[in-house]
Amino acid sequence: MSAGLLTDLYQLTMAAGYFEAGKAGERATFELFVRRLPHNRNFVLAAGLQQAVEYLLDLHFTSEEIAYLRTLPQFAHTSEAFFDMLARLRFTGDLFAVAEGTPLFPGEPFLTLRAPLVEAQIPETYLLSTLGFQSMIATKAARVVKAALGRDVVEFRHSQGAFARWLAYWRRGQLTSEAAPEPAIPRPACALAYRCSGRRRIPG
Question: How far is it, in rounded angstroms, from Cα 73 to Cα 76?
Fold first, then answer.
């Protein structure tokens, strides 16, 4: 399955509606943020940015997938030009996001997506589910480390490899509040910004 079908039918019918209304190419800005924190949570750690970037860079539909979409009753009255547009679809917009491991609070954007309307609409389901799941795991991991150390939560940056090292120490019984290895995790001075254009990714 290509990245294009990693969405739900609602997003595709919205895209078809925008296209038929002549609005598919209009620029749009989408922001992803947490409305409310889960019970007993003071923050959420942002995670999943790498997966989000890889998904956007790979966003496309195969000819087989477009042929399948043509068979769905929801697209019975959709013009052929819409499917031609899907065949050419690539993400050409901009993605701006906080750094991986940044603590987030309600109403603070995790990422901002600026792109032609169809290119911004279709990724919504994947970004919500992937970033939501990855952030949940990262937040729970921070709580585990806090419990293991008996001290303040460690702030994670590029957390996957660092947490794996900490978890290995913890499982071997070598992680204590008195003598714990300090993670070599660089702390960026500011949030990360990615510009995705075609198949290029440019930090900046």
Answer: 5
